[in-house]
Amino acid sequence: MFRSLGFVKHFVVDAIGASGGLWVGWRKEARMSLVMACKNYIILLVKKFNGLFWYLVLYYSEPEVANRTHVLMELEKWMDSCTYPFLIVGDFNQVDCIYDKLSNSQRPIEGANAFNSWKLRNELIDIPFKGPRFTWCNNRKGNKRVYERIDKAMASKDWLLFFPNTGTKHYPIQLSDHAPIEVDLQLTRNEGKKLYKLNAWALDYGECLQGIQNVWSFNVLGSPSYKVARKLARIRTTLKKWALDKKGEWRTKWDEFDSKLEKGMTTATTGGGDEDFIKAQDEVKEFASAVAVFWKHAKVKWTVDGDTCTKFFFNWVKGRGGRYYIHGIKDTNGVWIYGPHLVGMEFQMMFKTLYEADDHNNGDPGSRPESGFEGILASVTKKVSSDQFMTLNKPFTSKEVSCAVFQMGKFKSSGLDGIPACFF
């Protein structure tokens, strides 16, 4: 069963009678090793490709409240000696606040105070979740029905420093009394608002140009600059919607062509004639030639000019964007840094160290800190004098900025001897 699910390695803690039982499986590419196991939890050591170690704890608590304290204390001893970040996922069989329980009972939640004290004492952080709030139901009817959130994920205080976008996804309760939950290290990643780039392929379609003309002819009240701004905004929205709809139409047609070709091949190979198959092939060729211009503008290497556009190229480009995200980098000390903000700061500091002069050398380029460029620049003949260097390092004035932005091509010479005029 494990092999059929794609798990090369696995570990199992057998059930005791009809109670309990834990199992974990991992694929070939996962670098995991077993650390500790008992009837209530399995602890695995995970090694990431970037050299970071962390622990994964798969947890199943005792159903009876009186027996949970002993298990939590045993796990706490291990956490006290833990040197790496860790993530605990599983069925805790415990509601820790009133918002995580829905029932007609007004009794206080048994065991909640002890469980919350254990969390605070070990500085555990609840991983945020998406989806339905409750993960367990007693499957009774009417007023006796109870919903609770007892399946959850918690992490050590340093976990979010390495995996700040970790989130838990709750699925609906289906056949079991529990809902499946999934922990994703990139579930809550905020990529921000991205600019949409309209490629040149869209301008080859008459319907696209006609849409631009229709929007531009739309009457807008206001000053001339306001009219232009509003029309440009409408054009951006219209073109983006048209391009996305067009790509969606292409994806739908590829699926439609697959069905037609498969049906045509079945008919042809069973002696029913190949007319349907040939007709479907002709439709594919006609459609591919119509959208081939899109792939010529996309970043795909065409081995032959006019290579046939196929469904392969659609899937290739679709998966390309996920490979460009920077999850982490090493700093100058060889330590891995994670998170968009910290990674950006590290890049900024690196270039600042390379190019910025020391604040105590009064801007003298000769006293710039040593870098990898000094050996290269030493053989270059200097053409700028000290006075010219100071003049060029002056802050830009508002007049110069205005001239550069609004009077293109009219920017005069800087007035420095030996330095050519600048044009924009």
Give me some keywords for this one.
alpha+beta, 16 strands, 424 residues, three-stranded antiparallel sheet, 3 domains
Structural topology:
Blueprint: E1 9-13, E2 22-26, E3 32-37, E4 41-47, E5 53-60, H1 65-80, E6 86-91, E7 101-102, H2 112-121, E8 125-126, E9 129-130, E10 136-137, E11 147-148, E12 151-155, H3 159-162, E13 167-170, E14 181-184, H4 206-216, H5 224-269, H6 275-297, H7 311-318, E15 328-330, E16 336-338, H8 340-355, H9 374-377, H10 386-392, H11 398-406
Helix pairs in contact: 4-5, 5-6
Descriptive notes:
There is one protein chain. Helix content is 36%, strand content 16%. By secondary structure, it is an alpha+beta fold. It has 3 domains: 3-184, Endonuclease/exonuclease/phosphatase (Deoxyribonuclease I, Chain A, 4-Layer Sandwich); 207-300; 394-424, no CATH class. The strands form 5 sheets. Strands 3-4-5-6-12-8 form a 6-stranded mixed β-sheet, with no helix packed on it. Mean pLDDT is 77; it is low at 299-307 and 409-424.
- Going by CATH, what is the homologous superfamily of the largest domain? Endonuclease/exonuclease/phosphatase
Give the number of domains: 3
Side-by-side strand order of the widest sheet:
3-4-5-6-12-8
Radius of gyration: 32 Å
Say what the CATH topology of the largest domain is: Deoxyribonuclease I, Chain A
Helices and strands: which structural class? alpha+beta
**What is the percent of helical residues?**
25-40%
The overall average pLDDT, rounded, is 77
* Overall shape: extended
The CA-CA distance between the termini, in Å, is 68 Å
Number of strands: 16
Write the H/E string, N to C: EEEEEHEEHEEEEEHEEHHHHEEHHHH
What would you say the CATH architecture of the largest domain is?
4-Layer Sandwich
Sheet with the most strands, sense and barrel status = 6 strands, mixed
Count of alpha and pi helical runs: 11
In what range is the share of β-strand residues?
15-25%
Which spans have pLDDT < 50 for at least 5 consecutive residues? 299-307, 409-424
CATH top level of the largest domain? Alpha Beta
